[in-house]
Design brief:
Elements: H1 2-36, H2 41-50, H3 52-56, H4 59-77, H5 84-99, H6 103-106, H7 118-144, H8 162-186, H9 188-207, E1 213-218, H10 223-234, E2 240-242, H11 250-259, E3 267-271, H12 279-284, E4 291-294, H13 302-305, H14 308-320, E5 327-331, H15 335-338, E6 348-353, E7 359-367, E8 370-376, E9 381-386, H16 391-406, H17 411-419, E10 429-433, E11 436-441, H18 447-459, E12 465-469, H19 479-492, E13 497-501, H20 503-514, E14 523-526, H21 529-539, E15 545-549
Length: 558
């Protein structure tokens, strides 16, 4: 039988290799999740609770470790003994059929891959130290065969205690997400210290450029689109530096200032985002604005702010931070925004809008080429043509126009610049995909923009109209109701195919669609965007128009 026990000893090494691989993919998956929620332990814990039995403690780990724990109790406290043959056979089957596959953690198709940043590397060190404690301890006990389980019957044949070895590895696998939670908390002071260094460097660089004008943009929606429109109208006459994409966090802003801002730049355009009270002030402490643009006060991140009044106070912080002689370009159509800075006589307030304001857009029309509108400048009315779609994009353009006026740019020059502005990626971006069209509005959907996108889709007459959407998130207590209203808008749009992503999130949308007779049979629900794309490709025909409304991170996949 020595060959038999030799096989078991060899298998112990193979089993540990299986478990090491399983640990790595599981660790990588949860670190990726932490990165997607912005390294926020609160959001990470919420995600863990929502995915408790699917990802955190799945049935393959939970049930098996319960079995092993019972076996340990029975062997240690009773006369019941498990033979090496029985335990090794069970573990072999378990390893091959359950732990050999890492499909659920491998995530070959992801919209935003894990980025191995310096922070991730530091986090991995802490996670590895925490993660090795339990498996290493039980591996030591198993291979040293410390005899508190009375396994002497196999001592002369086996290098290890099979039950203890497996228990240590599997229990260690269960603890991985909790180790990441602890490691993230433990490294927080280190990360804060590093970030303070980057902030100090950015402030020092800005102080060395007194000629630089800083334009800061905030709002619940439209920040990125407005930023690029301001940049494109100003860059013809000025040397402009702006944050790319949705860089609107302290480290994103510091990275651009420290790495991209050069001495020849005359204007710096920054997007400032906020999920919690105090975020805007933190950003203004890095870069005080000379011109503040507030696009709107909506319900984005209502879950973390609690109310629109709190959101308004947070966004208004950008106006509060203006120096004497500063300029606030404000949305005249948003009651909360229009009131910002009313108590300050030392700044200039400019109100722009579609319906109200000292400068406003009129006679807006949409077509397959984009939008046309007229701007009343008081003593002059200028026609603007743009490739952009949607009323909110016209509103964003008005912020850019209002800002350009402050730099002395003439209306006709602005109109030429507006005509050349390309749609922002994933924000009502009209694309031709072979023989059909796509309206890509996949970035950060909100109640106003989502309904507006459906209205735009319904106006197309080139073919059938299709929508792919998971609905909206992070709206707090009003999320269900806003998604139900979104469903009503979809139903009223008289679309030809409605593809909803996520069974749970689809429920309020379906409820809204069902309020419009004859629309519910057009609905199909899938679990992920990839399934939605396959379904859409099977249905679409030449000339059809497909609207992608919102594209949630992978952590929201069901």
């Amino acid at each position: 039988m020595n060959w038999y026990f030799g096989f078991l000893n060899l298998f112990s090494i193979v089993f540990c290799a299986f478990l090491f691989r399983y640990h790595w993919y599981r660790t990588r998956f949860f670190i990726h999740t932490l990165q997607q929620v912005g390294y926020k332990n609160k959001e990470f814990w919420v995600w863990l609770r929502h995915n408790w039995d699917q990802k955190v403690i799945p049935i393959d780990l939970g049930i098996f470790n319960i079995f092993i724990f019972i076996a340990i109790i029975l062997e240690g406290w009773t006369s019941i003994k498990f033979t090496p043959s029985a335990t090794s056979l069970v573990f072999f089957v378990y390893a091959v059929f359950w732990l050999a596959s890492v499909k659920k953690y491998k995530q070959e198709k992801v919209k935003k891959p894990l980025v191995i940043t310096s922070r991730i590397k530091r986090l991995l060190v802490s996670v590895s130290i925490l993660g090795v404690i339990i498996p290493a301890f039980f591996a030591y006990v198993a291979f040293a065969k410390i005899d508190f389980l009375d396994t002497s019957y196999a001592e002369e044949f086996l290098w290890f205690d099979a039950i203890l070895l497996v228990f240590g590895w599997v229990f260690g696998a269960i603890l991985i997400p909790f180790n990441i939670f602890i490691a993230n908390w433990f490294t927080k002071p280190i990360e804060k210290n590093i970030q303070e260094g980057f902030k100090k460097q950015a402030r020092k660089k800005l102080a060395s450029m007194p000629h630089l004008k800083i334009i800061a943009i905030t709002g619940s929606y439209g920040k990125t689109s407005t930023k690029f429109m301001v940049r494109d109208l100003l860059k013809e006459r000025f040397s402009v530096c702006s944050t790319p994409g949705s860089y609107n966090t302290p480290m994103g802003i510091c990275k651009v200032i420290n790495n991209d801002l050069q001495s020849h730049h005359q204007i710096l355009i920054l997007e400032m985002g906020a999920r919690y009270a105090g975020n805007i002030q933190e950003l203004c402490n890095i870069a005080q604005p000379d011109i503040s643009i507030v696009t709107n006060v909506g319900v984005a991140h209502l879950e973390t702010f609690g109310s629109q009044d709190v959101i308004a106070r947070e966004k208004g912080t950008l106006v509060d931070n203006l120096p004497d002689g500063g300029i606030a370009v404000l949305n005249a159509d948003d009651e909360r925004v229009a009131k910002m800075g009313e108590n300050r006589n030392d700044i200039k307030r400019m109100l722009v809008g579609l319906k109200n304001g000292e400068t406003k857009a009129e006679n807006t029309a949409y077509s397959i080429e984009g939008s046309t509108f007229k701007v009343d400048f008081g003593n002059d009315k200028t026609v603007f043509k743009t490739k952009l779609l949607g009323a909110h994009n016209i509103q964003n353009m008005m912020f850019a126009i209002g800002t350009a006026l402050q730099f002395g740019i003439r209306p006709k020059t602005m109109a030429i610049g507006a005509k050349n502005i390309e749609p922002i990626e994933h924000r009502l971006e009209l694309k031709k995909a072979g023989e059909f069209y796509i309206i890509d509005d996949a970035f950060n959907s909100n109640p106003v923009g989502a309904k507006n996108a459906v209205e735009i889709l319904s106006q197309f007459n080139s073919g059938r109209k299709i929508i792919v959407t998971p609905g909206m998130v992070e709206l707090g207590e009003i999320e269900y109701e806003e998604n139900r209203r979104f469903g009503e808008a979809i139903g009223m749009g008289n679309l030809d195919k409605i593809i909803l992503v996520g069974e749970e999130r689809a429920k309020p949308i379906i409820e809204g669609i069902q309020s419009v007779q004859g629309q519910e049979e057009k609905v199909e629900v899938v679990r992920s965007l990839f399934e939605a794309n396959e379904l859409m490709r099977d249905f679409v025909q030449p000339g059809d128009v497909v609207l992608y409304e919102n594209d949630l991170p992978d952590v929201y996949n069901e």
